[in-house]
Design a protein that fits this description.
- The structure holds 2 protein chains of 2 kinds.
- Chain A is mainly beta.
- Chain A folds into 2 domains: 1-46 and 141-197, Carboxypeptidase-like, regulatory domain (Immunoglobulin-like, Sandwich), CATH 2.60.40.1120; 48-136, Immunoglobulin-like (Sandwich).
- Chain A is built from 1 helix and 17 strands.
- In chain A, the strands form 5 sheets. A 5-stranded mixed sheet of chain A has the order 6-12-11-8-9, with no helix packed on it.
- In chain A, a hairpin with a 2-residue loop joins strand 4 (57-59) and strand 5.
- Chain B is an alpha/beta fold.
- Chain B folds into 4 domains: 39-231, Beta-Lactamase; 284-323, no CATH class; 327-484, Reverse transcriptase/Diguanylate cyclase domain (Alpha-Beta Plaits, 2-Layer Sandwich); 494-750, TIM Barrel, CATH 3.20.20.450.
- Chain B is built from 23 helices and 25 strands.
- Chain B has an 8-stranded mixed β-barrel with strand order 16-17-19-20-21-22-23-24, surrounded by 4 helices.
- In chain B, helix 6 packs parallel to helix 7 and helix 15 (556-577) runs parallel beside helix 16.
- The chains are: A mainly beta, B alpha/beta.
Chain lengths: 197, 758
């Protein structure tokens, strides 16, 4: 599988033909929606699984980061940076798993090979929680502190742009766009009212 | 009976007051008890309701905690997350039983039931208790009371966290006997819960106090708690209290009744004794003392009653004594004497003994009294009483009947014995009475009568003794025994007394005249007018037969005035005929008390054209003594008018010479008793007559002798120098016609006629 990964890297690194999507995410009051993730899924074509890795650290009885978007097939390591043990688990259908009480970094990372949101918890620290957002695209990004996000180097084609955020109950209407070569598209999402606020 | 009723009244009153008090206490205790019971029941029921609420709230929290812990169980969450319905259902059932939940429901985040332990009946449907779920969605968890399967349930909802909520788990717990028993244990209240359409049971208000307490539900259903408290249980302490009070009241009542009986006895028994004592006093028994020894008011009353008993007794004795005794002499009075005589007669009727009675009065007591004073008279009477008592035996009775009248009752077998008694009584007067400076001889007249010889009863006996006494007095015999028939004499006196009133009007009275002869000239100078009563039955009566009667009857004044008028007219007639005589008329003692008499006499004299000196008024010594001062005044008045005054019957009275000297008299008439038997040999009379003549002459008075019946006495009088003489020797009293005839024919008169009738 290594040569395939290399190929992908090659193709993506072609800057000349790639398009850009700028997305602004805000709640109905115009505020920044923290930890929101924007991703664009190509329509009509399946992309090969990514051969990438990511890290979900546990430090001070918190998962860091709180939201980790990854492309399907990414292997995520769960190092424990605390001096106490944690018991990481997920009951999410996209990837149920558990890492029973452990210290340090487990030998094997967990591969998220199915798109979906995986909610993480620690069985002995109820207040710990985190999300791994598994998407079938390499074009994804977390919204920054200004509520904006830019998806770059997008291969021209047709894409469905989604937004996800932690407190989401109902996904905002995805936007379908055609990304032309060197084209820059502006999108804007307004989240539904948060159930908790 | 009055005392009995007093005791009863006191008892009833005390008992009534006590019963009222006790009843009042009981009633107020009962009412207060009822109120307290009601209040405490209400309070307890309220507490029960609050305890129920609190128990349910606490239970809800506990259930919520339990469910929360349960929902964090990893295996539970893992099973839920498996999304396999049978697995999910079994884990709900399994874990539910751990917390003894009656129902467990898993609810998706979309509000629809995903699994349940009640046979999947709810699966796929919205959770039936939306408000509970909404609260859970808002606040994270919730709990509440609902009606589920027609039973009251508590439901709690918590999220299933992985670690973000992936579902809601809901556990239901029926509110069952365990909860009820907790409430009962804490609040001792019975609780019956009903929910849904079921009606709460009808409260048994006779046995229980009840409170319907609706519970707050979260599904709008009706859940009602009927709280019940057994009334008996609440009342029990008060019933015990009331019983105790009632028992205490009863004991108190008994004690009070006993005390009241005792008290009533202590009051009523002495009162009864007092009433008996007062009754005895009322019946005249003063000798039985009241026997009450108490020191209280009743004791005082008894003492007072005793004093009263003694005082009444003493006073009654005194009254009886006063009523039956003479105050002056201390002798029995007429009343007691009469009783004694009656008793003696009654006794003698059985014994056959005679009862004798002596009536006596003191001779001339009137004069003694007037002369020596009433005090002296009283002393004399006292002394007489003493002496009489000394002469008699114990069984005899001496009484003072009034005035100078005494009486003696004695028992005597014979009349001779009675005479002896009378003689012994007379010895009381033998010795002179020495009273102070005065020594005086006193005599008494005694009349004796005997039962049954002279009278049949006490009344008659006294009357006849009285008659005998008058006889004794009249006859100067000292004493007399009653003679049969004397009663009629007495009756005659009474009749005469009445007839005398009419005698003047009927012209039955006539004036007789007796000449008084001048001893020196042996010629008639005066004529004494003497009244005669020509009685239709008794014939001609002399003055000493009826004048005392007239005095007693009070009509002597009429007779005197009639006599004066007649005498003056006759005198005037004689003057016209050439008979120059002075007429003398007797005045009674009573006449001297008539102040009008002098005026009347003056009138008659001037009417007749007669010089006052032609009228001589004769008065006895005793008459002047009657009311000396007043009589003297009248006499002086007469004297001033020129009328001549003469002392009649001189020598028989007690007048002192000093007294005689004060009298304005002109003449002095020696009593006939000294003159009648005057002979040269009768030395006593002779001495008296001579002394009297000398005395009279020495006092400048004309001395006249009455009762001249013999030539001898005439001669003696002439020799002794007496101025005038009067008597049968010269002439008896004569009617006017005979007097005129005597005057013409007598040696004492005719020659004296200076002027023959023309």
């Amino acid at each position: 599988m290594r040569p395939l990964v290399a190929l992908m890297t090659l193709s993506l690194s072609m800057p000349i033909l790639a398009g850009t999507i700028d997305v602004r995410v805000q709640d109905p009051r115009g505020s920044v929606v923290r930890d929101a993730v924007v991703y664009a899924v190509p329509e009509g074509r399946a992309l090969p699984l990514a051969r990438k890795t990511a890290v979900m650290d546990q430090k001070n009885r918190m998962f860091i980061p709180h939201v980790l978007p990854v492309q399907t097939g990414t292997a995520v390591r769960f190092p424990n940076s605390d001096d106490i043990r944690h018991h990481v688990y997920s009951f999410s259908p996209a990837k149920p798993f558990q890492l029973p009480l452990y210290k340090g970094t487990p030998a094997n990372p967990v591969v998220f090979d199915k798109a979906g949101v995986v909610t993480l918890g620690c069985n002995i620290h109820d207040q710990m929680s985190a999300f791994i957002v598994v998407v079938d695209t390499p074009y994804f990004e977390r919204v920054g502190g200004d509520g904006k996000v830019t998806l770059r180097d997008i291969e021209p084609g047709k894409y469905v742009v989604h937004v996800w955020y932690p407190e989401m109950r109902e996904e905002p209407q995805p936007d379908t766009v055609n990304v032309g070569a060197n084209e820059r598209i502006d999108l804007s999402f307004v989240t539904h009212r948060n159930g908790h606020s | 009976m009055a005392i009995r009723s007093f005791q009863t009244k006191l008892l009833l009153l005390l008992i009534a007051v006590l019963v009222l008090l006790q009843a009042g206490t009981l009633i107020s205790v009962h009412l207060a008890g009822q109120q307290t019971i009601r209040r405490s029941i209400d309070k307890e029921l309220g507490i029960g309701a609050r305890v129920l609420d609190q128990t349910l709230a606490t239970r809800a929290r506990q259930l919520q905690d339990s469910l929360r812990v349960l929902a964090l169980d990893f295996a539970f969450r893992e099973a839920i997350a498996s999304a396999d319905l049978p697995t999910t259902t079994s884990v709900l059932s399994n874990h539910g039983s751990r917390i003894a939940a009656d129902a467990v429901v898993l609810i998706g985040l979309d509000g629809k039931v995903t699994a349940d332990t009640v046979g999947g009946r709810l699966v796929g449907k919205p959770f039936p208790f939306a408000s509970l779920l909404e609260t859970a969605q808002d606040r994270g968890e919730s709990s509440g009371t609902v009606t589920f399967r027609e039973r009251p349930y508590q439901f709690v909802i918590v999220p299933v966290l992985a670690p973000r909520p992936i579902a809601w788990v809901c556990a239901g717990f029926e509110i069952d006997e365990r909860v009820i028993s907790d409430v009962r244990r804490l609040a001792s209240t019975e609780v019956v819960l009903t929910s849904g359409a079921a009606e709460p049971p009808e409260p048994d208000s006779a046995t229980y106090a009840t409170l319907l307490h609706p519970l707050r539900t979260n599904d709008g259903s009706r859940v009602t708690a009927l709280l019940q408290l057994p009334l008996e249980e609440a009342r029990q302490p008060f019933v015990t209290l009331e019983l105790k009070i009632f028992g205490l009241s009863f004991i108190l009542l008994i004690a009070a009744v006993v005390a009241a009986v005792f008290f009533a006895r202590t009051v009523s028994q002495p009162l009864r004794a007092l009433a008996d004592a007062a009754g005895k006093i009322g019946h005249g028994d003063y000798s039985t003392p009241v026997k009450v020894t108490q020191a209280d008011e009743i004791g005082h009353l008894a003492t007072a009653l005793n004093q009263m008993r003694y005082a009444i007794g003493a006073r009654e004795d005194q009254i009886i004594y006063q009523a039956t005794h003479d105050g002056l002499t201390g002798l029995p009075n007429r009343t007691l004497f009469f009783d004694r005589v009656s008793q003696a007669i009654a006794f003698s009727k059985r014994s056959g003994e005679s009862v004798g009675m002596i009536m006596m009065d003191v001779d001339r007591f009137k004069e003694i009294n007037d002369t020596l004073g009433h005090n002296f008279g009283d002393q004399l009477l006292i002394e007489i009483g003493r002496r009489l008592e000394r002469t008699l035996r114990e069984s005899d009775t001496v009484a003072r009947l009034g005035g100078d009248e005494f009486a003696v009752k004695f028992t005597a077998p014979t009349q001779k014995h009675a005479t002896e008694v009378a003689a012994r009584v007379r010895t009381a007067f033998d010795a002179p009475f020495v009273l102070g400076d005065v020594t005086i001889e006193v005599a008494a007249s005694l009349g004796i009568a005997l039962f049954p010889v002279h009278a049949d009863d006490a009344d008659a006996l006294m009357k006849r003794a009285d008659i005998a006494m008058y006889d004794a007095k009249k006859n100067h015999t000292g004493f007399a025994i009653y003679e049969a028939g004397r009663d009629e004499h007495s009756l005659r006196r009474l009749t005469l007394m009445m007839e005398l009133r009419q005698a003047i009007a009927r012209d039955e009275l006539e004036l007789y005249f007796q000449p008084k002869i001048d001893v020196v000239t042996e010629r008639v100078v005066h004529a004494e007018a003497l009244v005669r009563w020509k009685h239709a039955v008794h014939g001609v009566m002399r003055p000493d037969e009826f004048i005392p009667l007239a005095e007693q009857a009070g009509n002597i004044g009429l007779i005197t005035k009639w006599a004066i008028r007649k005498a003056i007219r006759q005198c005037a007639a004689w003057q016209r005929e050439g008979l120059d005589l002075a007429v003398a008329v007797n005045l009674s003692a009573l006449d001297l008390l008539d102040a009008e008499l002098p005026t009347l006499i003056s009138g008659l004299l001037s009417e007749a054209g007669l010089p006052p000196s032609r009228l001589v008024l004769e008065i006895t010594e005793s008459a002047v003594m009657k009311d000396a001062a007043y009589a003297l005044k009248v006499l002086r008045d007469l004297k001033r008018r020129g009328v001549a005054l003469a002392i009649d019957d001189f020598g028989t009275g007690y007048s002192s010479l000093a007294h005689l000297k004060r009298l304005p008299v002109d003449e002095l008439k020696i009593d006939k008793s000294f003159v009648q038997n005057l002979t040269e040999s009768a030395t006593d009379d002779l001495v008296i007559v001579r002394s009297t003549i000398e005395l009279g002459h020495n006092m400048g008075l004309i001395v006249i002798a009455e009762g001249v019946e013999t030539p001898e006495s005439w001669a003696i009088l002439k020799r002794l120098g007496c101025d005038m003489a009067q008597g049968y020797y010269m002439s008896p009293p004569l009617p006017v016609d005979e007097f005129s005839e005597w005057f013409v024919n007598s040696v004492w008169g005719a020659q004296r006629m200076s002027k023959p009738v023309a």
